[in-house]
Amino acid sequence: MTTLRPRFWLALAAAGLLTGGGTIIAGQTPATQAGQPTFRSGAQVVEVDVRVFDRDGRFIEDLTRDDFEVLEDGVPQRIQTLYLVQDNGVVSEPSRDTAVPPPGAAAVSTTPASARQTWIFFFDLNHLTPGGGFERARKAVEDFIRDRFKDGDLGGVIAGGRMVNNRLTSVHDELVEAVKSVKPLGDARSRFIDLTRDWPRFRDEAEAIRISNEDRDAIRAAITRACSDDADMCRTIPPDQAVRQKAKRLLQDLRRASVETLSALNGLASGLARIQGPKTVVFLSDGFFTNEMESVLRGVVGQTTRAGGRVYAIDVRGLNRGPTASTVDQMTADDPAGGPARQDLTEDGPNSLAVDTGGLMIRNENNLSRALETIARDANRYYVLGYQPVNATFDGKYHPIVVRVKRAGLRARARRGYLALEPAKMLVPQKIESTERPAEENAPAPGSAAPAPASAPSAVRLRPDAADRVQELSAGETARAGTAAAEGWAAFQRGDVSAAIGPLTEAAKDPGARPWLLYTLGLTQAALARPLDAAASWERVRQAAPEFEPVYEDLAAMYVQASDLTRALAVLRDAERRWPKEPQILNAIGVVDVRRGALDEAISSFGKAIEAAPKEATAYLNLGRAYELRYAAARHYVSSERKWVAPEGDRQKAIENYKRYIDLGGPYASQASEALIRLGWSK
Predict the structure, then answer these.
(1) Cβ-contact 438, 449 below 8 angstroms
(2) Helix ranges (DSSP H) in 427-514
(3) Residue 562's beta-bridge partner residues?
(4) I want to staple 309 with a disulfide (CB 3.0 to 4.6 A). Which of 125, 279, 372, 619 is the partner?
(5) Homologous superfamily of 118-187+261-380 in CATH?
(6) ∠ CA 170-175-181 to the nearest 5 degrees?
(7) Domain 7-24+459-681 is classified in which CATH homologous superfamily?
């Protein structure tokens, strides 16, 4: 039996950002250009993009390797390569003594085509207050995509921790519609009102933190303010208890929202590591709280830089910041007990994301279109220097980097470190070797298709093991494939799903169409975001080849995408009857149960998966998440006792399973660690 491990079912914590075995790309995307530098990830070859400016802020274009100095962990490194990337392309290391052509001689351009960019517009809905800032941000991004997005660039929109349409795309109109679909949440506004208006009022997040830390001056100021606002309430409820309880509750809410944002960024970075080329993440937020979360933030920064990403953070509040901002028109906390806030703690998170990844933090700017123009100029003009570190081991640690320019009067900006993890595998279309076989041939085998013409568009396949699955279905086939089937398979092999869909659909009209053809058609339909069509094709595969286990999980995944959880569960139950001890099936059932809100059933399914394969990590992560969700759902505030009540047993079981997942070395250990932090705070 084939053991299938589609990424859709791997873990609840990572679901939703990038689907399948790779990113689904819509539209035409150019193949990697000759001469374009490879942006690798990992510790064997470290590549750092650097921007160098003079005192007046002008970018300097004539630097060589000898002008740079790199230190890793304080140890000087030998720079081996240097590229200059600009709007008009990529050039090799500039030379100061390049010969000047004689007058009248034709200039010869050695600049290859420009590198493809990947743009991610991350709307941090947990920390975006409905109103002017949010609307300005959405409109500015729409205009930027229409006016500045280049043909061939990829783009995606993250909202609420999930990628809109669940894919990257090079289609401008699709991106614009994705941006238009982003809607604000009420949580950020509610938190601000609760913080600064509801009794007892606080001045800002910093005051809530100080009160939680039992700062006497902060507690005294909050009590004075509370009794000045409502003396009767102070006589009814002990004001010191009210102040302390509210501070603790607010702190938990702030941390929860920040962890959700960082988890989404971490998941995004994991997905981007599979895509080649530079990646620019535009992070749109009012800012978020990071107190006592430095290690989590450092991990997100490390994962982002490992993926070759830079974060450009925009404080969408512009000049409308602080306790006097007009986002809330009611009175906010001020005198008689403490003046206005002197420090905005919500700046720290976005600032660290931007500065430590080599990007920019833009604040005090109401013209967000101008901010995006600044980002576009910065993202398209930089040096890439490469070196092999003296310590070349994959030790999993964060290694700080310092990049300096030796010329006087210049300043350099670059990321500040990286995680020494094994390089991420880049899922890019591979060249298919030419064959002498005719177009009409026997059932396909991987690599058997004719090569694509040089001008043919390419796209990343839905799953990296798709050809292996088709090979399994076609094993033993002796009948020759028809012309349409062969043409569709050849296009699919190239990764050109747009060209494959027509001939495959035509070939599938035959009532006797072979299972391998129907399965390939389903993969193509799934890559084109047509889940119900893919499900129909795979239902035919299930009927014709009921022992082909991969189709059950793929089929269930399509029903989940189509929000038909009942049919998804029915397919998986059928698979469970055939393979009752298959952990992947049991995990998938648990994931669907979580989506249905059936947490008790999900816990049972994940437990069975662990019994079937006690050394496989995935089920422990999923089981920990299910226990955490049940714990959070049951947690409630008892007014008579003035405290939060929750099932401690579920919290402990969640902690045990998260720790077991980390011990087994699961790939989402950072998410498990973040969950442990959340559970520690909620005690």
Answers:
(1) no
(2) 466-474, 483-494, 497-508
(3) none
(4) 279
(5) von Willebrand factor, type A domain (3.40.50.410)
(6) 160
(7) Tetratricopeptide repeat domain (1.25.40.10)
